[in-house]
Amino acid sequence: MYSISKRILVTLWIMSCILFLQPTANAYNETDSNFLVITDIHLNKTTSHRMDIAPTERDRANDLDNTTFDTLLTMVQSSIQNGTIPTPKFILLLGDVAQHDPESTSNTADDAQAVFQKVKQAFPSIPLLYIFGNNDSLDIHYGPFYADTPVGVWHSVYDVAKDSGWNDGFLSTGISCQNTTKTYPCLITEDAKLGHYSAYLQKNLRLIGINSIVFSKDRQHLTETDAQTELNWVTEQLQTAQQKQESVLLATHIPLGLKMEDNNLQWTADDHAKFLQLISSYKNNIIGVLVAHTHMEELKVIRTDQQHNIIVMLNSPSLCTYSANAPAVKTYYYRQNNTTWELTDTSTFYISQTSNGLLLQKLFDYNAYYCVKSSQHITDCLSRITLSKMNTYYTAGNNNYRPTLLYPDALYIDLPASAGQGDSSNNFATIAAVAAVAVGATVLTASQMAKKKGKNIKN
């Protein structure tokens, strides 16, 4: 009898130890740094339409109105103050601050000015970073960053931001890395005409802010020469980061790869192939790619082959519900691991309409959903990502609209073979030509399939 009781006690003790040692839900901890992404605001400052919080379908008229934007911004601000959203080191505006269909470029400028002013007023002590979006050109939709014909005194959203109280058009604090060794983020270099810049988020953690509009299939008043100029600049940034043994986050508005809902490429095939070659050549330095534009909660796995997932491209859902998503923002967690940096987790927060009014709450954590162990970070869990799992949160919490994702290939971005780490000069033209043939065939097939599913709305 004693031996049986003893065995039971031992068994209970072992079970309690196992339970005690089970991982917690999140990969991040209190020592992790974090930043917040607010994207695709699409403010229509003068509209009389009130944005639908939980639409049943996509609606091009469902941009953010001024009153609702103020309400949502206040909710995010309050959620940071009460700890629902962790206080970010900085906030990244990932493009498309202005409305979709302005009557004139002055509307775009006015919308942008209102966004830059309001966000700065809401978060006066938090640095703000901005990435150019396709609706933000003062020239034309999908147009150049810098407009030769100004709107008043403004040639670009860079000018608008500075006139809205920002000390620099890309970084609200205007802090230059040349003038500081301890204050982050700080600007390394910028180009106020081409619309790209680099910044240190922490020591040895470089953000490369890319103007992806020059690579878009829908670009207007832009040429392949503009695209090549930026590719050359990105190459220089990656080369420098490699030489200094830095970790790199790439941030841009329009995603790489095939679009989830119609399997179409959003970049030109030529530019897409060249950029993937860059990622392949510098993959050991790149810890993640941050994008927006689709308005949905999604991601893509960047891989060298089917057995080797190496980088993740993470979308942030939009504040505007034009695409029938819920209004949402996203927190990214990151930490230093010896001499390098890594992304550890993300948390998506969405806003819903309840009987008591609007409510902001957490939608999900990446690690708790995709990973197994708390010690894992984002890249460790890429093999567990599936289209069906992504589909659960695809609309960022809006259960009134639940499209079914049909294209498994759109989940992946396959890198070309690299000629060597840091060697970005390996026959861009040949790589692009091969990719153009392959992508062209995919797009043709996808277009035929998309016709059967209905017309897709362009962002």
How would you describe the overall organization of this protein?
With 459 residues, the protein is of the alpha/beta class. It has a single domain, classed as Purple Acid Phosphatase, chain A, domain 2 (4-Layer Sandwich). 29% of the residues lie in helices and 22% in strands. The protein is built from nine helices and 16 strands. An eight-stranded mixed beta sheet has the order 6-7-8-9-10-12-11-16, covered by helices on one side. Helix 3 links the parallel strand 4 and strand 5 (128-130). The longest helix is centred in the C-terminal third of the chain and has 26 residues, at 428-453. The radius of gyration is 22 Å and the shape is globular. The relative contact order is 0.14.
